[in-house]
Amino acid sequence: MALANFSKVGRQKTMTELLCSQDLTEGIHHELRWIAAINILLSFTAFVGNATFLVSLKKVSSLHPPSKLLFRTLATTDLCVGIIAQPLTAVALMPEVKQHIQVCRCVSAIRFLAAYPLCMVSMLTSTAITVDRLFALSLGLRYRQVVTLKRTYLAVTFFWVLSIVFTGTSFVSTRVTPWYWFIVVSSSLAISAFSYAKIFLLLRHNQNRVNSRVFWQRQQNQAFGSPNAEVYTKTVFTILWVQMALFVCYVPYSIVGLIIRKKTSVSIVFIWRCAGTLLFSNSSLNPALYFWKMRAVKIAVKETIRNTCFFRGCS
To answer: Is 30 exposed, middle or buried (0-12, 13-18, 19+ CB in 10 A)?
Structure first.
């Protein structure tokens, strides 16, 4: 990551130079090998989990098309993290262990260009799904008119543009990068927290107004085209779990990113590497949460597995 820092003599260095420094990796080569191995394992699980989810999502009819597009975008970015960012992380760590500093810096720069847009789009899309669930509940009959497929495509495009711009700023002003990341992460989490607080307040209000079954069935049939409120409620709690996983995976990386801007040492660089691996692990956690919490997805996954060549028998 092109993040500014200073050496002992005061020369400005980028984060790539720091992470690939012989002085700041001395004595942790064995640990770096383990981190590389963990990233390879997580790369496999992220690929299998998100690929299975994307195939299965086509068979889920209970989700409104804009909502399905957001889930598809989130799974696609997580899939790309698994097949691009995590293998590049492992590849970058090996020359670091072997003290091939220039190779390490080159691969680390490529990884930064690939990983940061993907992680930011994943985070913004997760937040957008939370806001989408709030709109689904609060807008009622107007939900399908307001949240359209075209507008959702525009939102996803904006996420990609914002993420690419963020990545580009790191090469223009290295000091801005960690604060930019921290602000986007904290803003996304704050918006999600507000949306969930509003959702649960509305749910409680609706339950107090009517004896909920008839109300919910009518509301959800009109707003989502789903048979009852169960689909909506399960989706809400699934995204809540996704947001909690995002918080656990992203916040440590953001905090260490601010610390390492002020102070560097072997232990801090090691913690940074661990925090980066934890951040990438979010791409493996998300599909597991979908399969666990969303019944329609679970059924679709089972059907997909049954229909594979392995279970049918190949001729």
So the answer is: exposed
SS3 22: coil
- Among 65, 213, 139, smallest CA distance to 57 is for 65
Q: What is the gyration radius of the CA atoms in the chain, in angstroms?
A: 22
SS3 282: helix
Structure tokens of 26? Answer: 């001395």
What is the total residue count of the chain?
A: 315
State the CB neighbour count (10 A cutoff) for residue 221: 13
pLDDT tens, residue by residue, 64-77: 888 889 999 999 99
CA distance 274 to 277: 5
Helices then strands, each counted (H, E), the chain: 13, 2
* DSSP assignments along 151-196, one per residue: HHHHHHHHHHHHHHHHHHHHHH-TTHHHHHHHHHHHHHHHHHHHHH
What is the spatial distance between Cα 67 and Cα 64, in angstroms, rounded to a whole number?
5
Q: What is the C-alpha to C-alpha distance for residues 315 and 152, in angstroms, rounded to an integer?
A: 43
Structure confidence at residue 227 (pLDDT) = 42
For 261, residues 6+ apart whose C-beta sits below 8 A from its C-beta are 3, 4, 5, 175, 178
Give the list of residues 6+ apart from residue 131 with CB closer than 8 angstroms, or none.
191, 195
- Band (41; pLDDT cuts 50, 70, 90): very high
Q: Which tokens belong to 65?
A: 């098309």
Q: Which amino acid is at 23?
A: D
